[in-house]
């Protein structure tokens, strides 16, 4: 059995109009150390799947098994970067991370502070450590959330659109940071991330999971990215393999979105 | 606990403005000078307006006094009596003749005691009701049922239970102080955003960490609002309560002055009661502003 096994996963929400099935028939086997991207249109159930892995949601059908243990709730083996940062507004940047580290890690106070500082420096926020989240830009908040998830040193990193609010430059350097961290840990950390960005998915991932549109969304295709690592962002885009993959993904994500499909007719 | 939270937020503000000052140096100084003069102008304006209102009020008062042929004492007579009262506030000529300062002291002590006890009960209970739908279902109907009951109706019960008028007065202040704090606290707790709860869940916060780092800081502004409303009503109630209990306090003083047919003293007491009310309210408004945070 693989490291992280999602089997016949179904998640539905009770709504006033009855049961709303967000995702169903999700089957996915993830190896230890793999980087997986989930890609799909807004509302197709990406966050839902990730929350099931994170243990924030209980599946209404099927199971999620991590390291041979059925996931029943959140745990220190998984670090989550939420889509909306989820920082506590009354705690400083430093304290936001420290509370998570203090809660999860089993070491001395001094070591915990060291971990916090190290991760703050990694996301380039050390000089902002005494600010409150309300005094940060969206991108900075996102970096705090990333630092917080990294700081607890989890085996599985779950990132829900972690670079969505970042400008192109910061985004690029954060992507490299993630890869650096992954390499430093002998590529043993498993990363599952959600993204809207095809280029980002291709640059980072081993496999890309493309979802159908909801409701009752299923997996449309799992695309394997067989590009050699380390990948050079500038060189890689010129290779025929990359171009083929990119076109294929673009096709998967946009073929229902031609102008005719949207009911627009063009008059001469 | 409340102190430490306030303190961190305060230091945050200080640190922030300090670094701003460093970065922009002179610009900020000029700005703040301009801001200060605007502030003083605004304050002066509002004082002028308040004086206009006060003058109109005193005019009506004089008129009323004139038409009742001075059986309602006018502003000047009253202010003279008020001045006399305030110039020797702490005399003590036996149980029925004490200075206004001593009476006020008794009332404030009773209010603070009853209010503190009430708050100590209302805040944890409010958190409990806000956090658990079970407790809410069980206890909220009782709260809604008892809240509109005049606190004075509790006086006889207090007398029976404590067999002491002083204790009974504290008891009614206690009851009065419960409702606003309890309701505001439970509302605050029940509106904690899912995002904040997710943080606690994802990073395995212990109950204590969740309480002190999520529930309490989020709810604190709501709690302070509740406390402010509670102490206002408590201060309302104490006057009536002391009229019932007698013996001491500003309420007793009002009643006693009325029996002695000294309306000047009654009105003077009303003015003092109003001032103390403003001070209580101002104190909690100040804390309210201190603990509110930007999301
Ligand atoms: N708590 C919930 N209650 C009801 N419906 C929900 C809930 N959470 C998500 N959904 C629905 O499930 C679908 C998938 O949501 P989500 O996983 O957040 O999409 P996305 O792919 O944009 O992350 C959406 O239609 C959303 O409205
Ligand atoms: Mg989402």
Automatic annotation (TrEMBL), chain A:
It is found in: Cell membrane. Pfam families: ABC_tran. SUPFAM superfamilies: P-loop containing nucleoside triphosphate hydrolases (SSF52540). It comes from the Bacteria. GO terms for cellular component: plasma membrane. Keywords: ATP-binding, Cell membrane, Membrane, Nucleotide-binding, Transport. This is ABC transporter ATP-binding protein. Its main location: membrane. InterPro entries: AAA+_ATPase (IPR003593), ABC_transporter-like_ATP-bd (IPR003439), ABC_transporter-like_CS (IPR017871), ABC_transporter_ATP-bind (IPR050166), NO3_transporter_ATP-bd-like (IPR005890), P-loop_NTPase (IPR027417). The keyword Ion transport does not apply. One of its GO terms (molecular function) is ATP binding. The keyword Plastid does not apply. Residues 4-238 form the ABC transporter domain. It is a peripheral membrane protein.
UniProtKB/TrEMBL annotation, chain B:
Keywords: Cell inner membrane, Cell membrane, Ion transport, Membrane, Transmembrane, Transmembrane helix, Transport. One of its GO terms (biological process) is monoatomic ion transport. It is a multi-pass membrane protein. It holds the Pfam family BPD_transp_1. One of its GO terms (molecular function) is nitrate transmembrane transporter activity. GO terms for cellular component: plasma membrane. It is found in: Cell inner membrane; Cell membrane. The keyword Oxidoreductase does not apply. The chain crosses the membrane at residues 47-67, 111-131, 138-162, 168-189, 233-254, 266-287. Residues 104-284 form the ABC transmembrane type-1 domain. Coiled coil: none annotated. Belongs to the binding-protein-dependent transport system permease family. NCBIfam families: ntrB. This is Nitrate ABC transporter, permease protein.
């Amino acid at each position: 059995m693989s490291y992280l096994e999602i089997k016949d996963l179904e998640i539905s929400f009770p709504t006033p109009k009855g049961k709303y099935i967000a995702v169903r028939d999700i089957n996915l086997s993830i190896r230890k150390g793999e980087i997986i991207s989930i890609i799909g249109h807004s509302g197709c159930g990406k966050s839902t799947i990730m929350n099931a892995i994170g243990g924030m949601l209980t599946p209404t059908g099927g199971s999620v098994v991590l390291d041979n243990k059925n996931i029943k709730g959140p745990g220190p083996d998984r670090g989550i970067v939420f889509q909306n940062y989820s920082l506590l507004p009354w705690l400083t940047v430093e304290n936001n991370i420290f509370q998570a580290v203090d809660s999860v890690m089993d070491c001395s106070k001094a070591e915990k502070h060291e971990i916090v500082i190290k991760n703050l420096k990694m996301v380039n926020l050390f000089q902002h450590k005494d600010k409150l989240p309300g005094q940060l830009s969206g991108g900075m908040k996102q970096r705090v959330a990333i630092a917080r998830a990294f700081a607890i040193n989890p085996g599985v990193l779950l990132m829900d659109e972690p670079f969505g609010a970042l400008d192109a430059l910061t985004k690029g350097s954060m992507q490299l940071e993630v890869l650096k961290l992954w390499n430093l840990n002998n590529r043993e950390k498993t990363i599952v991330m959600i993204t809207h960005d095809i280029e980002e998915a291709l640059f980072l991932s081993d496999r890309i999971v493309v979802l159908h549109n909801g409701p009752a969304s299923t997996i449309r295709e799992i695309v394997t990215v067989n590009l050699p690592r380390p990948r050079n962002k500038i060189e890689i885009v010129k290779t025929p393999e990359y171009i083929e993959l990119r076109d294929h993904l673009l096709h998967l994500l946009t073929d229902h979105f031609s102008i005719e499909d949207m009911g627009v007719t063009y008059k001469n | 606990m409340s102190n430490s939270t306030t303190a961190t937020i305060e230091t945050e503000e200080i640190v922030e403005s300090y670094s701003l000052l460093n970065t922009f140096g002179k610009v900020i100084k000029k700005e703040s000078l301009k801001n200060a003069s605007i502030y003083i102008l605004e304050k002066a304006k509002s004082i002028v307006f308040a004086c206009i209102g006060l003058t109109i009020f005193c005019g009506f008062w004089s008129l009323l006094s004139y038409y009742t042929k001075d059986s309602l004492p006018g502003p000047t007579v009253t202010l003279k009596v008020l001045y006399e009262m305030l110039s020797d506030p702490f005399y003590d000529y036996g149980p029925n003749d004490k200075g206004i300062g001593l009476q006020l002291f008794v009332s404030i002590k009773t209010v603070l005691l009853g209010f503190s006890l009430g708050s100590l009960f209302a805040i944890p209970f409010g958190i409990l009701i806000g956090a658990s739908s079970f407790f809410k279902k069980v206890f909220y109907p009782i709260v809604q049922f008892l809240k509109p009951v005049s606190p004075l109706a509790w006086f006889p019960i207090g007398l029976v239970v404590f067999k002491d008028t002083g204790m009974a007065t504290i008891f009614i202040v206690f009851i009065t102080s419960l409702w606003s704090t309890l309701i505001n606290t439970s509302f605050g707790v029940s509106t904690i955003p899912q995002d904040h709860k997710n943080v606690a869940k994802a990073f395995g916060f212990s109950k204590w960490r969740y309480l002190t780092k999520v529930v309490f800081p989020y709810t604190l502004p709501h709690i302070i609002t509740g406390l402010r409303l509670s102490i206002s009503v408590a201060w309302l109630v104490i006057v009536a309560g002391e009229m019932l209990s007698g013996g001491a306090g500003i309420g007793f003083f009002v009643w006693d002055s009325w029996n002695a047919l000294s309306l000047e003293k009654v009105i003077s007491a009303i003015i003092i009661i109003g001032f103390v009310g403003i001070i209580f309210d101002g104190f909690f408004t100040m804390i309210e502003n201190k603990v509110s945070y930007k999301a």
